[in-house]
Write a structure and sequence with these properties.
By secondary structure, this protein is an alpha+beta fold. The chain contains 15 helices and 19 strands. The longest helix has 20 residues. The structure holds adenosine monophosphate. It catalyses: L-tyrosyl-[protein] + ATP = O-phospho-L-tyrosyl-[protein] + ADP + H(+). Keywords: ATP-binding, Cell projection, Cytoplasm, Kinase, Lipoprotein, Myristate, Nucleotide-binding, Phosphoprotein, SH2 domain, SH3 domain, Transferase, Tyrosine-protein kinase.
Length: 496
C-alpha cells in the first residue's frame, strides 16, 4: 500500500489536492527517482505525465467582462486556454497584461497550422537539411528559416546563416504556450517572435534578413528512394493485410528498421506517389516515422522505424498486456489521441484507426501506423483482402454506408479503439456479422461499457459514437481529457 513520505512529489500532490481541491497542483521539479507504476510483473515504467504547452487560441469576437471572474478580450487577441468550465473557458491573454479569466467557449477558436503561410517556415526538416539549404548559393548571410525541433515536436528552431556558418537558436514554449528564445521576452506566435528579431537582431547577435530562398518543392523532391541492397532482412514480424512485414537492418545507417512489403500490382501508382509525398512531411513522436522507400522493382519496400512490441492488438492480448492496469491503458489511449490530433491539424484522415494499426515500443510508447495507406491500396484489394477482417466494426456508419471518411469518422474509430484497449483486445460486437453491426448501429445501439471501465472513459467512447459526426469531440479534446485522467491516475497509484 502507499506510504506517505510528505516530501515526494506524489504525496505533495495528494496533500495539495486535499487542502485545495479546486486548485490544480503543478509540480515544478522532476522527481529525483524515475517514478514507476508497478504491475504484478513489476517491470513496466511509464513516464511522468507531461504537461503539454497549452494550445494557442484566438478570440473570435469582442467580449466585455461582466464580473471580476471574467476576462475582457478583443477580437483577434491571442489566448492560452487553461481549462474548460462548462460553457466557458478559463483563458489567459498572451500579450499585454497577461490577465486571465472566463470567456464564453464559443468566443474562442483554436489556431491551427498558422505558420504554414510564412516563407521562412520549413516545418519538418532536420538540422543537416537546414544547413544545406541555407548554405546553398542563392542564400546570403542573414538568410533564415524556422523548423520543427527534432527533439520536441512542440518546439521550433530558428536557423540563421552567418557568412559561411549556420547558427541554430532553440525556440522554446512556456507552460502557457508562448514562444521564446530568451526567457526575458516571449511572444504569442512564431511570426511575432521572428518580426521582433528582424528588428532587434542585436539581441540575437546575427541579423535576420530574408527567408531562406530554396523552394520547398525542391526540398520535397529529395530522394527518399534507397537501394534495396542497403537493407538486410532478419526476421518476419508479421503478415499484414497488404504483404509481409520484416525486421531488417539498414546497413549504411546501422539501424534496425521495419520493412513493409507491398506488391506493385496491389498499389495504385498515382495515389502511391501522392500519399508517400504526404507521408514524408509528417513527423510526430506519436506517429510511425517513414524512413525510406524502395519503390523501383518488386516488392515495394516501405521502411519505417521499428517498434519492439508489435501491434497494440497483439500486445493487449499478450500475457504482459493482460497485466496492464487502468493508468497504463489510459496512457496508451492518450498517446494515440495525441498522434491523431497532429493528423487532425493537417486534415489527414487515417481511415483505418484500430488497435491493429497502433504499434507499441518500450515503456508503453504507442505510435499510430499506416496512416494514408488505405488510399494507396486499390479499393478492390483493400475491401477484398479485408472482408474477413471486418473493418466495419471500426468504421463510422456514414463512412461504411456512404464512404464519407473524415477526421470525425476517425474519431468514431478511436472510440472503438478505446473499447479494444479497455477490454484488452476484445473483438468489438463479438458474435455479430458486419451486416448485423450496421443494422444495430443505425437503430441507435452502441457497444456496452466494458467491465471495470470507469464511467468517464465510457462517456468518451459514447461521445465518439455520436451519430452526428460534427458533435463528436476533436482529437485535441480527447488527448487533453485522457492526459488529465492519466495525470490523476498516475499521482494516485504511484508507489513511493
Ligand atoms: P500490418 O501490415 O501493419 O498489419 O503489420 C503486420 C504486423 O507486423 C503487425 O501486427 C506488427 O506485429 C508487425 N509490424 C508492422 N509494422 C511494424 C513496425 N514498424 N515495427 C514492429 N512491428 C511491426
Amino acid at each position: 500500500m502507499e506510504r506517505c513520505c510528505r516530501t515526494c512529489m506524489p504525496c505533495l500532490a495528494r496533500l495539495w489536492n486535499c487542502i485545495w481541491p479546486e486548485q490544480h497542483y503543478s509540480p515544478r521539479a522532476e522527481p529525483e527517482e524515475p517514478a514507476e507504476i508497478r504491475t504484478v510483473a513489476g517491470d513496466l515504467r511509464v513516464p511522468e505525465p507531461k504537461r503539454r504547452p497549452a494550445q494557442l487560441y484566438a478570440a473570435l469576437f469582442d467580449f466585455e467582462a461582466r464580473s471580476e471572474e471574467e476576462l475582457t478580450v478583443k477580437e483577434g487577441d491571442k489566448l492560452s486556454v487553461i481549462e474548460k468550465r462548462g460553457d466557458y473557458v478559463l483563458a489567459k491573454k498572451l500579450t499585454g497584461s497577461l490577465e486571465s479569466g472566463l470567456v464564453p467557449a464559443s468566443y474562442v477558436t483554436l489556431l491551427k497550422d498558422e505558420f504554414a503561410k510564412y516563407k521562412w517556415y520549413y516545418g519538418n526538416i532536420n538540422r543537416q537539411k537546414a544547413e544545406k539549404l541555407l548554405l546553398a548559393q542563392q542564400n546570403k548571410s542573414g538568410s533564415f528559416l524556422v523548423r520543427i525541433s527534432e527533439s520536441n515536436s512542440d518546439e521550433y528552431t530558428l536557423s540563421v546563416r552567418n557568412e559561411s556558418k549556420v547558427l541554430h537558436f532553440r525556440i522554446q514554449r512556456s507552460s502557457i504556450g508562448s514562444y521564446y528564445v530568451s526567457y526575458k521576452i516571449s511572444f504569442a506566435t512564431l511570426d511575432e517572435l521572428v518580426g521582433y528579431y528582424q528588428k532587434n537582431y542585436k539581441s540575437l547577435g546575427v541579423p535576420l534578413v530574408l527567408p531562406c530562398a530554396q523552394q520547398r518543392e525542391l526540398y520535397d523532391m529529395e530522394p527518399w528512394e534507397q537501394p534495396r541492397e542497403d537493407f538486410t532482412l532478419h526476421k518476419k514480424l508479421g503478415q499484414g493485410h497488404f504483404g509481409e512485414v520484416w525486421e531488417a537492418v539498414w546497413t549504411t545507417e546501422k539501424k534496425r528498421v521495419a520493412i513493409k512489403m507491398l506488391k506493385q500490382e496491389d498499389t495504385r501508382q498515382d495515389e502511391f506517389v501522392k500519399e508517400v509525398q504526404a507521408l514524408k512531411s509528417l513527423h510526430h513522436p506519436k506517429l510511425i516515422q517513414l524512413l525510406a522507400l524502395c519503390s523501383r522493382g518488386e516488392p515495394v519496400y516501405i521502411v519505417t522505424e521499428l517498434m519492439t512490441k508489435g501491434s497494440l492488438k497483439n500486445y493487449l492480448e499478450s500475457p504482459e498486456g493482460q497485466l496492464l492496469i487502468l493508468a497504463h491503458l489510459i496512457y496508451m489511449a492518450s498517446q494515440v489521441a495525441e498522434g491523431m490530433a497532429y493528423l487532425e491539424d493537417r486534415s489527414i484522415v487515417h481511415r483505418d484507426l484500430a488497435a491493429r494499426n497502433i504499434l507499441v515500443g518500450d515503456n508503453l510508447v504507442c505510435k499510430v501506423a499506416d496512416f494514408g495507406l488505405a488510399r494507396i491500396i486499390k479499393d478492390s484489394v483493400y475491401t477484398a483482402s479485408r472482408s474477413t477482417k471486418i473493418p466495419v466494426r471500426w468504421t463510422a456508419p456514414e463512412a461504411a454506408l456512404h464512404q464519407r471518411f473524415s477526421v470525425k469518422s476517425d474519431v468514431w474509430s478511436f472510440g472503438v479503439l478505446l473499447y479494444e484497449i479497455m477490454t484488452k483486445g476484445k473483438m468489438p460486437y463479438d458474435g455479430k456479422t458486419n451486416k448485423e453491426v450496421l443494422e444495430l448501429l443505425t437503430s441507435g445501439y452502441r457497444l456496452p461499457c466494458p467491465g471495470r471501465c470507469p464511467s468517464d472513459v465510457y462517456r468518451i467512447m459514447k461521445e465518439c459514437w455520436n451519430s452526428e459526426s460534427a458533435k463528436r469531440p476533436s482529437f485535441h479534446d480527447l488527448h487533453s481529457r485522457l492526459n488529465q485522467m492519466y495525470s490523476s491516475l498516475y499521482y494516485n497509484t504511484v508507489q513511493v
